[in-house]
Amino acid sequence: MFTREDIQQIESRGSSVETVETQVERFRQGFPWLKILAPATPARGILVLSDEEQEAAVKYYESASIHGKCKFVPASGAASRMFKDLFAGLETLKSGKTLAEDSPAARFVAQICKFPFYDPQLFGTGEGPAYQQAVLYKTLTDEGLSYGSRPKGVLKFHRYENGEIRTAFAEHLVEAQNYMKNEDGSANLVVTISPEHRTLFEEAYAAVKADYEARYGVRYNVTFTYQDKSTDTVAVDLENRPFRTEEDTLLFRPAGHGALIHNLNAIEDEVVSIKNIDNVSNERLLPITAKCKKVLLGKALELRDTIHGYLRELDAVCSVIPGSRASSMICPGYDPVYEDINVTDRALELCDDIEAFLREKLCINLPEPKSAKDRVRMLRAKLNRPIRVCGMVKNQGEPGGGPFIVAEKDGSTSLQILESVQINKHDEQARTALALATHFNPVDLVCCLHDYTGRKFDLLQYVDEDAGFISSKSYQGRELKALELPGLWNGAMSNWNTLFVEVPLETFNPVKVVLDLLRPAHQ
Length: 523
Prior knowledge:
Elements: H1 4-12, H2 17-29, E1 35-39, E2 46-47, H3 51-63, E3 69-74, H4 84-94, H5 104-110, H6 120-123, H7 128-140, E4 156-159, E5 165-167, H8 168-179, E6 186-193, H9 198-216, E7 219-226, E8 233-234, E9 252-253, H10 261-265, E10 271-275, H11 286-317, H12 345-362, H13 372-383, E11 387-394, E12 402-407, E13 413-418, H14 428-436, E14 439-440, E15 444-448, E16 469-475, E17 478-484, E18 497-502
Parallel strand pairs: 2-18, 3-6, 3-10, 6-7, 11-18
Antiparallel strand pairs: 1-12, 4-5, 8-9, 10-15, 11-14, 11-15, 12-13, 16-17
């Protein structure tokens, strides 16, 4: 299948022929559909907290013992999709046609002075097609702001009454000092970027670092990381053969945000908050944003402490010394020290408690075990996993994955976040579950990455490789198929312990298109 030149190209990217062959086979075989049992709703699967419960969660977070906190911000790629409508408008004007009055490009120009990046000297004043074309050109190209090719994180998102202007990245720094500050006054951020954008991010960081550290009494530790090229996946043609460019080389494509599980896995801190680069708002909304984030953090730590307590007690009643034998990961959460265990009456009582906890709190129903020892092993494997608590907002038609209860390959059930492409629209039960869904995922989650002995989980062991998907793309005018790895908050976290918590819609303020900056949360 591959020439000597192909093999050199593959290995130079840090990949292997075996990996690429597996990817090609995945195109041929496809991904299995997940069996959706029901949507996660407030009736079952989504926790809705009272005001008193929210306050209790905040207090739990503020008093909990944590071995390091970090904010993880996916920020790779240019903002080209954010300006897609403006590019289309510019092409319309360049062809000699006029813009429809209600078109996104026309609305953008008409309200240009309301955007935080507006500069009267750059844009001037005027009207008509010539002025519209000039404004779009100066916004998108290197004759002006170059926003059509810059990363979203360094774009100016907000203008304040005192004249201060902040980028999306700057707003993440302000958020981090509020709810993710460590006891020593530091705030750790890991920001995933593209290598070609590093200088822009470093300049944006340097422009505010000293000011914010003095203003907020914080010390920032910011790490910029890249999506590893070795995680790119090979593209194929419509016959599922490796796609070849005009230069007769293989075409590799970024495999989606699922590749960032490698970046997340490199973090040593115990607690990580994840939020997309474009989901920020004006600082006047920070109190509600921070409170809701602290609620998620508190519930995550409550869940951590409950699970770790069960695991310690299970070890004690089964006469197990953690780490007494070499560990080899047979399945997520499995530990061979549980091969030889003593199942006492107290152990069986504890198993009853654990099963009730998993069923009632995490929607995990387990298959019938073959023996009492198998029951203990299975329960321990389900407990001893990374933890994620995900904010869910009421469905208002915004884009985002949805929360569902699904059937797992081992016969158990679990809570999962699924994108629409992962849902089999030909399956009546799946269609019904999708129609009855009440909430969606705004990518607002908190993770606990250490086990009950204090060791960091190897997150790569908890990925469901069957949870990726295939999409249709094009290159140089030719159609192709692209392979998306299991998404970071989808299949990459399939084998985690998951809790869904309702959060207010006010905490979700993404900027997917430039006109979103005119919404109240950004003005």
